[in-house]
Amino acid sequence: MKISVVIPAYNEEKLLPTTLAAVRTANRSWADRGWDSEVIVCNNNSTDRTGEVAAAGGARVVFEPVNQIGRARNTGAAAATGDWIVFVDADSQPSAELFAAAAGAISSGKVLAGGTTMKVDSNAWDLRCMLQVWNLISRINGWMAGAFIFVETAAFRQLKGFSPDLFVGEELDLANRLKSLARSKGRRIVILHSAPMLTSARKTELYTRKELLQFFLRFMVRRKSTQTNRDACNVWYDGRR
User: Fold this and answer.
1) What is the CATH number of domain 2-201?
2) How large is the average pLDDT for residues 58-69?
3) Nearest Cα to 150, choosing from 5, 1, 2?
């Protein structure tokens, strides 16, 4: 068995070293089972030292010129040689316990893909409350947060990966397609919860609550037109870091 950890990265020179260090430690969970692993960073047309930092951290670096997270994940996945792909965002820190839980799900033979609940590096009560709501919705609906997704490589490629038309919400679109495929194969999607993934709360520091609320209201009211318009997704693509 071989696991490919794919990290999409756009201007992530500040947080990427911490993420790569966490991944190196967590990868021991694969090694404990006798599994091989590789780490691939997709440099998504960064203007900083993301590519150099990734290479210095021991990752194989590939390049995606179109600044779009779904495309970056797809480009990283295209270079993957593992039986399973684990997507980790460049501002998140998986633990060995999380990778071990994913390994258990993979070994069961009953799971086609999965995600995990999340925790955040902030004490802001409103953010923590929103995250708890998301964790509940995620577990009920089998929706995977983009920060951590594990999926059988063959299934990911059968579905042609993330939609190149979506600038946000691409993980929800993939989750819904994976659920249909899983049912047809007598397998399932699982949301792990024993070791939540730690992710960055930097958006709440870089953007005002008003800016974030405006985006989410626009997303809820005009979802499709927002998802397919890069300019409408400035919270993800304006380069603020």
Assistant:
1) 3.90.550.10
2) 97
3) 5
